[in-house]
C-alpha cells in the first residue's frame, strides 16, 4: 500500500466522531445524527438518534451494525448503548442482567451477534450473547409391552413457532417536484397458521416528504416525521391468510438530489413471543421515488428545436450514471454523466454540433453495468 491521497469529503455534520461501513453505504455519526453516504462520498440522507422512544437526545461516539442491519450506538453524554433499526428508529437501551445500563467506550459485534463492550477506565471487555429461544418439537416414544407388541405413544405440544408476517411497500408518485403528491401503500399479510397480535407498524418519512392524509386504513399517530399505527392495547389479531392495508398520501416539500427511499417496519406478539416480549422488528422492501426500476426518455421522436427546454429529457436517472448515445452504425457520438435524477441532452455530439436526423441507440451505465437501453428517433421536421 502506497498511502497515496485519493479523495476528501465534506461531511454534513458540524462535529463527527465515528464512522462505520455497512455495505454498500458509509455512515458517519455526529451532531446527534447519523449521516449516510454512498461509496463515492455523495450525501444521501441523515436521521436523528433518540435516546428513547420519547425522543430524548442521543449523541453517538461509536456506531456498529450487526448482520441483521441493527445499529448499536454509544452515547457520549450518558454512555448508554442504544439499539436502533438502520433507519434510526429507537428499539431499546441495552442493560445488564441486574437492570443497569451498559457503559462503554467502544463496541464490537461478533460473527454470531455477540456484543463486546470495551471499558477503558476499568481495563475490561464485557461480552454479551444474544438470547435465542427454541420452540419444543413433537416427540415419538416407542413403548415395549410385556407381550412384546410395539405401541407408539405420541406426545406433542402446541405449535409455538414464531409468526413471520410479510410486509410489502408500494408507491405511486409523480415527477419529483415540490408540491407533488406521493402515495404509499403498506400491505401486511400473515401466511402462518398462528395469529399475530399487539401489532405496531411505523414508517419514518424522508425529510423531503410530509404526511398529508390517510386514503385507506386506520388513522395513525404522528411523532415528528414518523407515522405510527399502534395496536398494542387493542384486540386486533392477524390470522392465517388475513391482511392489513394502510394507504396514505404524502407531499414533496424539499428538493432531492438522489432517489428518495422509504421503508416500513412492524413488530408484534404471537404464541412464541408473549407480551411484553415482541417479535424482532421486520422491515419491508425499499421503495424509491422516482422509481429506480424505470428510466423515462422523452419526447420520442425528438426535435431539439421544438422540444420542451429544447432537450431530450431523462427522468429517474441515478446520479453518477453514464449515458452513451450511438448511431445506427454503432459509433459512440456522445456520452455524459448524470448529476441529478433528471438529466437533459441538447441533441449535440461530442464536438458540440447538432447530430443528423435518424435512429440512435441510448445506453445507461452504472459501475460498467448496463441499466437501460432505449432507441430514439431524431427528427427535425
Provide structural commentary.
- With 381 residues, the protein is an all-beta fold.
- Strands 16, 18, 19, 20, 23 and 24 form a 6-stranded antiparallel beta sheet that branches. The chain has a 4-stranded antiparallel beta sheet with strand order 1-2-3-4, with no helix packed on it.
- The radius of gyration is 27 Å and the shape is globular.
Q: Which helices and strands appear, and what pairs or packs with what?
A:
Layout (H helix, E strand, L loop, with lengths): L15 E7 L2 E6 L2 E5 L5 E6 L11 E6 L5 E5 L5 E4 L5 E4 L12 E4 L5 E5 L4 E5 L10 E6 L5 E6 L10 E8 L7 E9 L6 E9 L4 E8 L4 E3 L2 E5 L6 E2 L4 E10 L7 E3 L1 E6 L12 E2 L3 E3 L6 E3 L13 E4 L6 E6 L4 E6 L4 E4 L12 E9 L2 E10 L3
Give short descriptive properties of this protein.
0% helix, Neuraminidase, four-stranded antiparallel beta sheet, 32 strands, mainly beta, Immunoglobulin-like, 3 domains, globular, 381 residues, six-stranded antiparallel beta sheet
Summarize the structure.
By secondary structure, the chain is mainly β.
Strand content: over 45%
Poorly predicted residue ranges:
131-157
- Radius of gyration, in angstroms, nearest whole number: 27 Å
Helix content: under 10%
CATH fold type of the largest domain:
Immunoglobulin-like
The outline comes out as: globular
Report the end-to-end length measured between terminal Cα atoms: 59 Å
User: Can you tell me the CATH architecture of the largest domain?
Assistant: Sandwich
Report the mean per-residue pLDDT as an integer.
79
Count of individual helical segments: 0
* CATH class division of the largest domain: Mainly Beta
Report the count of strand segments.
32
Largest sheet: 6 strands, antiparallel
Number of domains: 3
Amino acid at each position: 500500500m502506497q498511502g497515496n491521497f485519493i479523495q476528501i469529503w465534506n461531511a454534513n455534520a458540524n462535529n463527527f466522531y465515528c464512522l462505520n461501513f455497512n455495505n454498500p453505504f458509509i455512515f458517519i455519526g455526529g451532531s446527534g445524527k447519523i449521516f449516510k453516504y454512498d461509496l463515492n462520498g455523495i450525501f444521501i440522507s441523515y436521521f436523528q438518534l433518540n435516546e428513547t422512544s420519547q425522543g430524548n437526545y442521543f449523541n453517538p461516539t461509536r456506531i456498529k451494525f450487526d448482520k441483521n442491519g441493527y445499529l448499536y450506538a454509544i452515547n457520549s453524554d450518558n454512555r448508554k448503548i442504544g439499539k436502533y433499526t438502520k433507519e434510526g428508529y429507537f428499539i431499546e437501551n441495552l442493560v445488564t442482567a441486574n437492570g443497569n445500563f451498559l457503559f462503554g467506550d467502544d463496541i464490537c459485534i461478533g460473527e454470531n451477534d455477540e456484543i463486546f463492550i470495551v471499558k477503558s477506565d476499568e481495563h475490561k471487555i464485557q461480552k454479551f450473547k444474544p438470547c435465542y429461544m427454541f420452540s419444543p418439537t413433537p416427540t415419538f416414544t416407542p413403548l415395549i409391552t410385556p407381550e412384546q407388541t410395539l405401541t407408539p405413544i405420541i406426545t406433542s405440544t402446541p405449535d409455538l413457532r414464531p409468526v413471520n408476517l410479510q410486509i410489502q411497500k408500494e408507491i405511486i408518485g409523480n415527477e419529483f417536484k415540490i408540491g407533488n403528491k406521493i402515495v404509499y401503500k403498506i400491505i401486511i399479510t400473515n401466511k402462518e397458521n398462528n395469529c399475530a397480535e399487539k401489532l405496531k407498524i411505523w414508517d419514518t418519512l424522508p425529510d423531503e416528504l410530509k404526511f398529508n392524509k390517510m386514503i385507506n386504513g386506520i388513522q395513525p399517530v404522528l411523532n415528528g416525521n414518523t407515522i405510527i399505527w399502534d395496536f398494542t392495547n387493542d384486540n386486533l389479531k392477524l390470522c392465517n391468510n388475513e391482511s392489513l392495508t394502510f394507504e396514505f398520501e404524502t407531499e414533496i416539500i424539499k428538493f432531492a438530489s438522489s432517489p428518495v427511499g422509504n421503508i416500513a417496519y412492524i413488530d408484534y406478539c404471537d404464541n412464541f413471543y408473549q407480551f411484553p416480549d415482541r417479535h424482532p422488528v421486520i422491515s419491508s422492501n425499499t421503495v424509491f421515488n422516482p422509481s429506480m426500476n424505470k428510466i423515462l426518455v422523452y419526447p420520442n421522436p425528438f426535435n431539439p428545436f421544438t422540444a420542451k427546454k429544447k432537450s431530450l429529457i431523462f427522468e429517474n436517472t441515478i446520479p453518477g450514471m453514464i449515458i452513451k448515445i450511438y448511431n445506427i452504425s454503432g459509433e459512440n457520438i456522445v456520452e455524459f454523466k448524470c448529476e441529478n435524477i433528471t438529466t437533459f441532452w441538447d441533441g449535440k455530439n461530442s464536438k458540440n454540433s447538432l447530430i443528423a436526423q435518424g435512429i440512435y441507440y441510448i445506453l445507461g451505465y452504472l459501475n460498467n453495468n448496463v441499466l437501460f437501453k432505449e432507441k430514439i428517433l431524431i427528427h427535425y421536421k
